[in-house]
Design a protein that fits this description.
mainly alpha; two-stranded antiparallel sheet; 9 helices; 2 strands; 3% strand; globular
């Protein structure tokens, strides 16, 4: 037990140390920074995108289509609610790390009500009472403290990412629904269900994109970077970076 607690404390210390390091890192800039190309690894990214697209076409989309046809919509919605509820708990942690206590309390209440009155999150009653979801992750937390998006990357199986979001991946994985289960086969089953259910929700939208996107790679890249590179869901979400100390003898600006 003591060893487990020590590992848990060590993980959070590592998290806070990495967060502080990234907050002051000047080498990771967003796609809009001067001198920084948006997609410096485009040749590699396009090859990986083509692989992922082929995998989706021949495996994931057919499985998701069968799943959507066989599983009634209310059950699929309950599965959605269950996974989203676990995500709400991780969002609460990230909101606290972002220095947004009010939003963190609201998100925590959302998780509490759905976990208890909503039967472990299968029913989303929090939205009905006005507690809206604020989906946050470690990549957004790094961005909150001044870390730029960085170059665009496409990973096999995992899809679009960036330098910043890639650094955040291990932390987000540690809070994934599959970690609730100890058995390896259960972990694989939960992850597979989450993946197939999410793909089933995207079936209609992806079919529409097939007809309107001239270059699917560019469309997905631009959409990803636009969504991940800005935080303007409310006025609280400006980037926090410490002000540089004034040089000795330089008058301080007034309030």
């Amino acid at each position: 037990m003591r060893t487990g607690k020590a590992l848990g404390i060590g993980r959070w210390l590592l998290l806070l140390s990495l967060l502080a390091l990234l907050g002051g890192c000047a080498s990771l800039r967003g796609p809009g920074s001067q001198g920084q190309r948006l997609d410096p690894w485009e040749a590699w990214n396009r090859k990986v995108f083509a692989f992922n697209d082929s995998l989706d076409e021949h495996v994931l989309r057919p499985v998701a289509t069968v799943y959507s046809d066989m599983v009634p919509a209310p059950i699929r919605q309950s599965v959605d609610n269950f996974f989203n509820n676990i995500g709400d708990a991780w969002s609460t942690v990230n909101l606290m790390l972002q220095g947004r206590p009010k939003a963190a309390v609201e998100q925590g209440l959302r998780f509490f009500f759905n976990s208890t009155l909503g039967f472990a999150g299968l029913i989303d009653i929090s939205t009905e009472i006005g507690l809206e979801r604020k989906s946050e992750d470690m990549g957004k937390t790094f961005g909150r403290w001044g870390t730029g998006t960085g170059a665009y990357i496409v990973w096999p199986f995992f899809g679009p990412s960036s330098v910043r979001d890639t650094l955040a991946m291990p932390f987000d994985w540690s809070a994934a629904p599959a970690v609730l289960f100890r058995d390896g086969s259960s972990k694989v089953g939960i992850y597979s269900l989450q993946t197939v259910n999410a793909r089933a929700n995207f079936l209609r939208a992806s079919s529409m994109l097939e007809g309107i996107a001239l270059d699917k790679y560019t469309f997905y890249r631009d959409a990803y970077l636009q969504r991940r590179g800005s935080f303007g869901d409310d006025e609280e979400f400006e980037v926090l970076v410490p002000e540089a100390p004034a040089e000795k003898g330089t008058p301080q600006a007034g309030p």
